[in-house]
Amino acid sequence: MKQSILVITISRIMLPFVFLYGFYIILHGDLSPGGGFQGGAILATGFLLTYFIDDERRVDLNRLMRREKLLFLAILLTGSLSLITRGEPFTNFLSPDFPVEIRRIFFLLLNVLLSLKVALGLTAIVETFLEEGQG
Amino acid sequence: MIPIEEMMIPIFIGILIALAIAINLTNNHLTDVFLLSGFSLLAAFCYVLYQAPDVSLAEVAVGSAILPLIVIISISKHRSFVVLNLLPQNCTMELEALTLLQEFCDRYRLQLVLVSDLALDDVEFKVFRKRNIDLIIESHEYDICTFTGVTTSLMMNRLESRIQSYDHFEMKEIKEGEFIV
Predict the structure, then answer these.
(1) Which domain holds residue A74?
(2) Whether the predicted interface score ipTM is above 0.85
(3) How near does any CA of chain B get to the CA of A83, in Å?
(4) Which CATH number is associated with domain B80-174?
(5) What is the helix (H) or strand (E) element at residue A90, kind and residue range?
(6) What integer pLDDT is reported at residue B42 of this predicted model?
(7) What's the pLDDT at B145?
(8) What local confidence, expressed as pLDDT, does residue B29 receive?
(9) How far apart, in Å, are the Cα atoms of B161 and each of B104, B156, B157, B158, B164?
(10) Which residue has the higher pLDDT, B126 or B105?
(11) Would you list the domain boundaries of chain B?
(12) Going by C-beta distance under 8 Å and a sequence separation of 6 or more, which residues neighbour residue B169?
């Protein structure tokens, strides 16, 4: 179906702001409301807008799923890093002696990984819908 | 003295209930999407009033952005337009109707799929899934061709405005899930 030129133009204008807001929510997730899931959902919204801009756009579903599984492994590994550095699993891998600004790195890392996983997962859901509809 | 935030909560919950009833009563898919995203936005506002900004952000992102986008993208990526042709073969009326439909499909970049008889359909469609018919063209009376379609489909409104300029074509609408064959 042909897209209206208004929809395409508005999507093009909105796209960078949606991504900016998503990254803002992810990077401030440990201090203010928001975090990995919410930011990831906003990133996925921005990514879905590209379906409006490009009519023929398709994403390889298998590649999406594989990246999502790899990110899940990365989240588990980040959690288990503390087993090496501090001797107990699933806590912050930096010891409590460091100041808060440095210990924050753990939460930032987890939030970024989680948000990417959520964004890929939501995009995979939409892609599955499209693949079903075109068969 | 009750703070003004707490006084607003019953009003918002009343609007939420009204919206939820309206979502159940509408038949149009596009109106449904708009009402649903409005419902999510108001619900998110209620979460803020109950001091849960975190939940509210998730509600806004999923309920009023992702969900409508999924529905709208799925509709806009619709590629084929399946027409069940029950007109007598090779008459001028069939030719005229098919020309109109082909022109309509070219305009919205759809692929016109013509099915003449459901019994002669492919084995794949008979056994594994049901053929989803968008439009049925038939003629019960001499000289009048009836276009029958589902009311909820967005295509039907556009097709109806195209058909109005012809006198011997008429539009008939049925509800979803209703059988006429």
Answers:
(1) 5-134
(2) no
(3) 30
(4) 3.40.50
(5) none
(6) 93
(7) 77
(8) 78
(9) 11, 9, 7, 5, 6
(10) B105
(11) 4-76, 80-174
(12) B97, B100, B144, B145, B147, B163
